[in-house]
Amino acid sequence: MQFFKLNLKSGFYVFTFIAICFLIYTLQQERKTPYFVLAPSSVTIKIQEIYKSFAQTISTTTTHYLQILNLKEQLTQLEEENQKLKAQLQTLKEVEIENDRLTRITELRSQLPHFTDIAARISGRDLFTDHYSLFIDKGSEQNIPKLAGIITPDGVVGYTIDVQANSARILLLTDRLMSIDAVVQRTRSRGMISGYGKNLSILKFLDRPQELSIGDLVVTSHEQKLFPPGYPIGQISSIHVHPSGVGHYAVITPTVDAKKLSEVLVLRAK
Amino acid sequence: MMSKTILRKILIPLLFTALILFAINIQCTVWYDLFGDLPPIVLWPAIFVYLFTTREWRDRTLWLVVFFILLTSYSVAIPLWVFLSLCTLGALIRFIQKRFAALATSDLVIFSVLSVFTYPIVYATFSSIGAMNFTFNLWSHIFSTLISIPFIPPILFMGKKIDRVLNIEDEGLLFIKL
Questions:
Q1: ipTM for the complex?
Q2: What per-residue confidence (pLDDT) applies to B175?
Q3: Chain A residues lying within 8 Å of B25, measured CB to CB
Q4: Which domains, and CATH codes, for chain A?
Q5: Do A185 and A217 contact (CB within 8 A), yes or no?
Q6: How far is CA A175 from CA A11, A199, B140, in A?
Q7: Count of CB atoms within 10 A of residue A137's CB?
Q8: Which pLDDT tens digit goes with each residue over A169-208?
Q9: Domain segments of chain B: what residues?
Q10: Which among B27, B133, B137 has CB closest to A176?
């Protein structure tokens, strides 16, 4: 019975306990966080945030470190990949350039109604540095005759002088043994094209040389049968008096640079 | 005995012809594909020098003809001038060889380098006769000669190897000394 003998102090404790229980219950019913919970939790959240931030920093740093470790390997792989792609790009560029060249050759074919043509690739060049000739990969088995005109879309290259079964030799415009009948497009002055060494030809036996000027285009004449008439040969770069004092000759820069040739068209009169 | 004769008569000329063709094709085709318009290495004179210094006169004459045929088939050069240039070069080699009794490998290398440089000059001299628009690229020849120098000893080595493997080198040299 001693248990039920409550004094004031015990009663206060019991009352406070019950009051707190009711308060918690009431707030719970209203779905509100109790104030006495709310106040410390705001502090703990801050602390938690600091810890979280710290943890995130460590995590990020660790991740970055691990990523850096992998990065070197990835960089090496990417560099290799980059090199491969660059090589592929270069190949594609080369293919594109070749495609352009071949397209131009195909377009040129339609403009040559009086000739049949055979496309050929360059396979070699002259043994002697002072002579200018090229070898192509087509010969008599592909119906290439001797003295067939060789052109590109840019102009005259030369003509075949020796034909084997599967190869032929082209004498270039720049070889001194070359001779083609030509005219100056503007003045119709006639002359004979002959080689003059590296990247140059000369137009000799010129008639009416006083009418010529530097930059005039020299084209094939109507008198020859190897090339289409009026096809470009080169441009006059200088005009000289022959050393003997008789007649003039003009130095010509061919429109086709034989050094850069890859494919040519071999012409055959129909 | 019979097999040795066969080797001497057939296999050696074939191997040397292959070596000449190798040297010519390096110059005309491979170099052109790799380096474009850069003056090429000229190696055939080294083989010419080797054959002219180690063979008797009948063989030398035959090799002269072989060289003439091969060179003219790879160039538009005027055949008569090519032949006369080869004869002149051969005569020069023999003259110097007899004069200085030169037979060592270093002598052959010097002869070869001189031949690489001299042949175009001899050819140009002949072909300038009556030519209006005569062309000669001195700097190309100098460049060709200079870049050919490192490749000449291997070519001479190959020539020597062919002879050594087929065991006739000493006999050839003996003939020259006599």
A1: 0.79
A2: 45
A3: 124
A4: 115-269 (2.40.10.340)
A5: yes
A6: 129, 9, 16
A7: 14
A8: 999 998 888 888 998 888 888 888 988 877 888 888 887 7
A9: 11-177
A10: B133
